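Now for today's protein:

——
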Amino acid sequence: MLQNNAHYGASTQFAQARLWRLISNCLVVPAAALAALAGGISLSDPSSGNLAGVLALVASALAGVQAALNPARKELTAQNCANAALEVRNDARQLLTLDLEGMSPQGARDRVRELTMRINEIHRIADPPSGIAWRLGHRRARRSRAFFVKDAERAADTSTSGRQ
């Protein structure tokens, strides 16, 4: 359960980071192009001040939206939360496949409690994902989940065959 939570959370945050990168590029590139075009037009033909002014205003508006949304910070936050969730997922996988067999019940509970606290902290820090990021992240997580399910089944087969 904890492993799934971390896996799906990481996939969703990676999808959210990709969306913020897309939004950033959709705002920055046209703003820079329009600003350069406005400057070039005003320098080449001083009589076309209206067109240059309109282009400069549109470029300024796009830059203002970019500054207000701050997609670069949101992308970085989503990326960091996704990486932290992957760490929790990998630690949970290691606990399940390698460490759990030799641990006492109390030691296992303590370790699961610590991993749960880590994933809960990640969820508190992360910005809520958009609906699009949630759907994309869950779709990708379902596809890639087969890999770690096979790992867990293989580990279970190995541990039960060693007990016979």
The two ends are 28 Å apart (CA to CA). Helices lie at 2-44, 49-69, 71-99, 105-125, 131-163.
